[in-house]
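Here is one chain, start to finish.
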Amino acid sequence: MRILSEIEKQHGVKILYAVEAGSRAWGYESDHSDYDVRFIYVQPVRHYLSLHHEKDVIEIQQNEVDFVGWDIKKALSLLHKSNPSALEWLTEENIYLEHQTVGKIRDLAIKGFSPFTVTSHYYQMATKNMRFVSQQPFTDVKKWLNVIRPVLSCLWIEKFQSSPPNNLSAMLSELELKEAFKEDIEKVLQLKKKGVSEVALNTIPSLFKETNDELVRIEDHLKNCRRNKQGNIKDFEEVFHVILEEIGGMKALYSIN
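Its structure:
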């Protein structure tokens, strides 16, 4: 994307990776959905030698596109802890730009993946949003999807012990769900794509019941998950050093060409 090159010049960084996020990555965008682009960047080596805490996020809103970027050090620190947002960024779907070193990062993230950490995140997201939708006779379609996607993510992790794909339909195609439950999910998905804003609870009875049942079961499942798994921090540090050498070069202390 041309704008990514402009960001590099404006901020003096090198973008390693850029990917589509938000509703378009999740597979339920409507004609009016904005674009959400997430990226990981490297700064000049001198930045990492500073005694001060330097800014490690770039945020830009341009027309209908929302750009958010994380410094490589921030991204690696979060991935070391199986941060779910960082893992969603590191998907292999809808990629705009990817430097060859990203493969090393992805391998480490997979190796150090913590089912408990990521499942807990999605479970908390789903239960929080479920409390809201269950109190309304007519519910915002987008909010329902903010319940469905994390629930399916929990089910994916339980079955495959890996980070779930961002695309909701991709999860649906691989998970074994009750037919009525799956039909109600697909109904809400199609409503969102058509730009419909609300759905009545009495039109999706299976969705409400089965989602509640799954949340209870996921809560029980979490009690038996291994809790302390993390990636090896030294491995992440090694990749960080390799990236600085390959992208900036340890001799390039003042600029990135």
